[in-house]
Amino acid sequence: MAAVISAEGVGHTYANGTVALEDVNLEIGTGLFGLLGSNGAGKSTLMRAICTLLVPVRGRVTVGGFDVVADRRAVRGLLGYLPQHFSAWRLQTVTETLDALASFSGLTHRKLRERRIGEVLESVGLANVAHRRVRQLSGGMTRRLGVAQALVHEPKVLVVDEPTVGLDPEERLRFRQLMAELGRDRAIVLSTHIVADLGSGCSDLALLDRGRVAFRGSPAELVARAVGKVVEVTVPEAAEGDLMNTLEIVSRRAADGQVTVRGVADKAPAGARAVDDITLEEAYLAFMVGRGRHADELDMSDSSDSKK
Amino acid sequence: MVNFNNIWAVARMERRQTRRLARYWVFLVIAYVFGVGGYVYYSVLHALFSSLSASVGMIGPRYLMGAIALYYLVGFVLGIVFLGFDVRARDIREGIVEVLDARPLTNFELVAGRFLALFLSAWIPIVVLVVLIQSLGFLLPLLGSPIGSTVEPLSLVNFAVFMAVPGLVFAIGLVFVITLLVRHRLIAALLAIAAIVGLVWFMFTVPGPVAGALDFLGAAQVTLPSDFVSGLLVPGGWWHRAGFLAIGLGLVGIAAAIHPRLDERKSWTPVAGSVALVVAGVASLAFVVQTRLSEAANIERWRVAHEARVAEPVADIVAIEGTVSIDPGRNLAADLVVELQAPAEQSLRSVLLTLNPGLRVDEVTTVDGSALAAEHADGLLEIALDRALAPGERTSLRLRYGGRPNTGFGYLDSTLKLESLTTNEAQIGLLGYERGLFDRRYVALVPGIRWLPAAGVDVGRDDPRTRRTDYFRIALDVELPSTWLAAGPGKRQTVGSADDRTTFRFAPQPAVPEVALMAAELKSFATEIDGITFEVLVHPDHDRNFEVLADARAEIEEWVAERLELARDAGLAYPFDAFTAVEVPITLRSYKGGWRLDTALAPPAMMLLRETSFPTSRFDFDVIGVFVAGSRNYDQEGGKPRIDRDRLVNFFANDLSGGNLLAGAARSFFTHRTSAAGPEGIALDFVLEDLATLLISGRRSYFSAHMFTNLNQAVTAVMNNLQGATAISDAVIRSQTLRTDVWDAALETPLSAIDPSEDPQRALDTLVLKGGKLAEVIRDRLGPDAIGRLLARIVDGHAGGSFTLAEFVAAADSVSPDLGPLIEEWIGTTALPGFVVRSVEQYRLPDDENGATRYQLLVRLGNEEPVVGFARVSWAVPGRAGGAGGPVLVEPGQPAGPVNVNPVISRSDAIRFEGRSAQEFGVVLTVPAINVRVLPYLSLNRDDFVAGVLPTGEPPLRNVEPFEGSRVIDFDLGRDARIVADDLDEGFAIVTDAGGDDFRLGQQNDSDEDLDQGLPIATTALPSRWSRRGGPAAWGRYRHTFASIRAGDGSTRAVLPATLPAAGTWELEIHLPPFLLNFANANSAWSLEIVSADGRETVEYDASVATQGWNLVGEYRLPAGEVRVEISDRAAGGLIIADAVAWSPVRTFGAGGAAGQ
Predict the structure, then answer these.
(1) Which residues contact residue B750 at a Cβ distance below 8 angstroms, ignoring those fewer than 6 apart?
(2) Nearest CA of chain B to the CA of A214: how many Å?
(3) A53·B10 Cβ contact <8 A
């Protein structure tokens, strides 16, 4: 697979001394690429570097063969970008916003632009609010508009940062399907702390921790690494608290005074049994626990809106 | 590589955004209210008032819309600040900045797109406004509207293109740069506003050419609109506008360079080009400034060259004869024979003439063809004669010259140099700025540009103390395109026509001091009255008033014939065979140079009518007839035609911009025929010119170009003096001559010693004050016939030359024995009479033999000063009930006419008062008078004043003989025995609790504030400090003034001291003028303190019951010596007035305490 995006020895330190990236080497090809990591892991810094919004202090990033520093304009021509915090000009309508942004990305033919705007609005479910002003959109609609603007000019590379924040479950599902669909013929970099967002379309991912690439491989490889570390244990409800110290709890279910807890542990507590239907989320947690992290640091909740 | 699609895409998005901003529409609505409102406002003003005065037409929308564009643009530019200050902040605030920055869009494309959007958002409404206004101008008249006319088209192009485009581009660029540098949008907005307001402020306050460099809106770079010589930009204007456009675009480029991106990289690519644009723009402006400075330097160089030779002997030009061929806009070719005469006391080896430096002297020969050496530099033509001319000897020279006259030449010694005035003062530009015109559409060869040779240097010509006016005969053949007409001195005779050229001859019989020649494609309206051709030449489209006034033609002709007859019967016949009023472009400068800046619109036998004057004034709309009920009685003798005639006469008489046709015509009777010489020359010329104007037009006239350097102040002053004035010209004269500084000068300087070198405007106004009053008193004492005889006597003896004071006095003596001494005394002294009313009495007389009621009005008046003085008495009687309008003035000896207004004012002849004498004036009336005033001529009273308050109700009956006329009475009869302390007395003071006096009589201050004998002059109804104001009904020994202040906290008091000769019980009265009495009454309690050696007594005075005149305060027992009445500003509201207080003894005590009287 030819690399569409390439990062070689990329490092970045902010002016206040915070090291955001350290020797990141990545090659990303066509398809949905997941970028996982906890808050502050360096995901957004890497995304911004890819999107030419930040010049890394060290190393080199290329997109489609173009250097993000030397050939910014060429890179920007290939990109569709949905930042973590997106809104648009409040006084413009949805269509006008997309029309302007599509024009900026080189979609100069009016008819073509109109067609694309129609398609993309349909695909993100905003067709019925096409003429509504941005300030009249709900948070979810604004987020979908963000997706639409990133797609409207059919970019070769799509970079989406925490794309499902604020979406309801139905919208999130549709988004995952859309990403899977789009990932067939373009590179999509999807940065998220919600592992479920990667969905079935994700065939490749990287896990960033403290500015470094801690894992690079397929979701299956990540799951394989977790075998034996994801366990399930059933204890009386009164004893559940004792498990907190030994297990990073992923889920629980209670019945008849007993509670069955599923979690990740380096060292399984007594009575625990390893499970074989490990989810990608559990695998990610297991990996991070293995690096000495705890679940509450990772903020993996899909309802979390803390980053907004 | 710039992607223009991106720029346009940004612009489209940004325009949508701008259009959805409420503030954009607020600015737009305000701008349109100003724009359309201004058009409608000026259209209405023009329709209503332009036929009232030849000066009012200047406010016509056709010529003014371009000028008010400045204010429109300033408003819109300030609006741009609030649209442009969000250029980056909004993207960040609205959360789209990352998406934008990740787009393949350069900073330049983004900023340029936004610039384009903002520019279009501001500019398109301007274009729409222009179209809207012009459409209104077309449609309104078609729809039958009495207002509305099209605006001169090129002035709109100037507005929309040459003012707006560079102005907006510059403003947007400036706002962008400031916004992007400062980042904080509120601070950026404040800074941008400060920068724009600062630029405009500096533009209005720094002098001439430098101001041009700050004139980013281009207000001073566009030509005044004209239907004759419509144009776009003034010379250098193209460079100027291109300069600001370049700077604006450069600033936009710099804004693009400093526009931040999230990658923290600046796009420096546009910087080089942008900086280069800014530099080129600045260089262009510098070039314009330098060019204009060098033009000003040219004038200065010429002036210096002329000044250097001012002492050289001047040959007298006796006659100029020959041909002038004009190819408009291209060439003037003159072939002249000039007859010269050496000075009477000096021989001449060479002749020094002034001739326009733009003309090339081809040949100078004697009349028999011998070539003479001549040098023509700096507008000076020096001709070496082939032999010396003996004193008084004459010779003739032939001059051939040609080329394009330099219309920048002329008026070298002008005390006001338009080139170095601030933009504020350059309002004088409304009087035109082109010294002459040599355009392919109009040729205005005014004398000032010296298109004909003039004797001597071209400085000091308007100072008869050092330079006699040179009068010469003229006979010119003027060759012009065959479609053109020309106006010149005297009758235009067609002498030939060939090859699309026509030759006209101007050969007036009298000698003239100057020659003007105006030529263009003009429409002629001519008539002949008493053998004199009267012709009006106007732009072919400006003929509407001839239709409107067609019915009044016979009346007008009759009126002109009467004036001619009046002058002729007095021996002063109109000397020319024609009088031509010719329309001139608004751009032509209408004032001359020198100290006086006299009108340039009245050359011999001509009157130049500015475009905004009669040709375009709205005589079809009679505002007085429409809005002032009962003011037009169309059934009276003469009917509407006579009313229209009077409107026309008043129209010119009310001119204040040098275009008074009547005053201009009067010059051809006298001023253009002879003038004074010697130390008193300035005063004599002025008085005689005023007399000629009074004779011909019946009224005085006033023109001072100085006034136009602060037009707003002047107009306000005129408006303040309109009340009670019978004509606008009176109000103008009053406003200019009642100024304290003018009076101070008048009291210090005799007429003969007025020196204009220090303060020309003050000198002129002092002349108007003293000389004008002298002319008035001569007119009122002797009547028009005697004036005519006096002027005729001088003309007969000195036509074509000059006269001295002695010759003038001799002529006056021959007309009236007491006139000569009077003139001599008035011209040579600073002493003035001062009038004090002794008493005013009115009683009923027995009915006359027909049973008609009769009332006797007696006014006793004393002249307290030891010099001769003159005064009149005026009285008002109520008019017919239900009448409306202002007062009607009835001249002595004239019937009052139908009494249809309220009140009717009559006045006496001028009464002569010897020094320290008193007279009684009496008049018998059919109804009691309601108001009596004293109207002194030049006196220490300075202004008219109320003689006294007449009791209301039926006057008492006295069975005495009626008395009419005036008679001398005992000087001491009726003197006021009270001890009066007035606000102008020496001891009057203002004290404050802060300590000490803050005012003493005669105090000066360092600020520019105008003081009237130590107190600020009141400029508002409720002044915040004790201020002085004049009022005819205020008390005053001579001047009638009062001090006033708005109610305060009691921290300041006006002190009126008096010295009581004896201890006893004294009655205190306080005098109050009617002026603002309502303000005074608004507060019922004033705090008065009576301070004497016995202590301080506080008196609460109830001002709500006060009436005009003297009001009793109370009786007080007081010691002898100084007693002060202190009027505090402490009151709950309203105005506190300190006019005068009076002490009368009720009972006094001798030293031993015995009661006495």
Answers:
(1) B827, B828, B829, B830
(2) 27
(3) no
